Amino acid sequence: MLSGMGQRCRPGEGIMDLPDEWTGTSGHVLLEPWVPPHIRDGLAELIAELEAAAPEGLGSKRTAFREGGRTDKGSPKFMELPVAERQTVALSQLLNDRFELLVGAQLVRAGALTRMRKDTPDFDCRWGEHEFGIEATTRARQEAAAALEQVMERGLWDGPDVNVTLTRSGELLFSKSSEVIAGISDRVVAGIKERIAHAAEQPQLGSVPVPELGLTAMWRAGMGISMPGMRVTYESPLAFTEEEWDHHWKMVALQVQDTIKKKGGKPYSLPSIAVVDVSRLGETSRLLSPEGISKYQDVIDSCDLGNLRGVLLVRTTLTSRVIEPVCWRLDESVRLAAGAVILGEHGKSLVGS
Fold first, then answer.
1. How many domains does the chain have?
2. Which domain covers residue 180, as residue numbers?
3. Which tens digits make up the pLDDT trace of 237-255?
4. pTM to 2 decimal places
5. Contact of 331 with 309, CB cutoff 8 Å
6. pLDDT tens digit string along 141-151?
7. Is residue 232 part of a domain?
8. CB 125 within 8 A of CB 347
9. Strands 272-277, 130-138: parallel, antiparallel or unpaired by DSSP?
10. What long-range pairs does 191-198 form, CB within 8 A, spacing at least 24?
11. Which of the residues in the chain have pLDDT under 70?
12. Residue at 196 is within a domain
């Protein structure tokens, strides 16, 4: 058994740790106390499943996961960032890695995985008599208000007891990089804390403009229940105007097209498909309707697949052990590849396993 693989918890916290071989003993973002336990536990379950199967190439995935999540080590440019920004970048990378681990677990459950790779494709597979490759990737560009809400929650984790609502100005903005969001969060949180610290202990309210994102942070203190992880909300995208939604979908389409073009430009030794998780791509997947699915289908139907034999767009959640298909475009030669990813162990009967 790997060291750290048991029910080891930090003193007084009751939180299950991940294996040391995957996180190291310090410096990894998943060791931070503000990381939600369900994210950590979900990753621990996937890792345990893959370790039990021990596919060829698993060691390289361990190394990538461990190094990609570190906040105390990296390129000179990365280390110049404030700690909060490094944490944001590292956590975003690990959420991308989580999807790749989930795809690997599904392929193990189907009995299809033969090798995990550092190059292209991510997974070599055989299902029945069919050989194929899977290239797994996540397209993650959060809508600006949603991204700022998450980072501000972390900045206000230890207080003060304040409630913040992010309201939109109506600007046609899709998203900003995680580094920019983290820097803005630091400024807004510092401004709110300063206002509260210099006032008497009585109900207070105020606002901080965020012109870079077309937002305003409306805050109030001493006027309601405030708890870690529940201090910040943002205006629902249901309030988007038609113009805002059109702009949002245009930006989403560009993100998907760029991903497919990049993956299609790679060489593949096996007939391969790209499996693209769009769960964290703006607000489109959280509010996905039949009309939205049709829009996604139009995007992949119009793309040049290059060296790929197919594309599968999917959704997941941070605690899910399944993968939900959104839409697809597949050659006959790779339809079983999509089946292995989506069906997992439930697809074994299709190939007589």
1. 1
2. 144-239
3. 878 888 888 898 999 999 9
4. 0.82
5. yes
6. 888 898 899 88
7. yes
8. no
9. parallel
10. 192/156, 192/160, 192/162, 192/164, 192/217, 192/219, 193/160, 196/160, 196/162, 196/221, 197/160
11. 1-17, 199-202, 349-353
12. yes
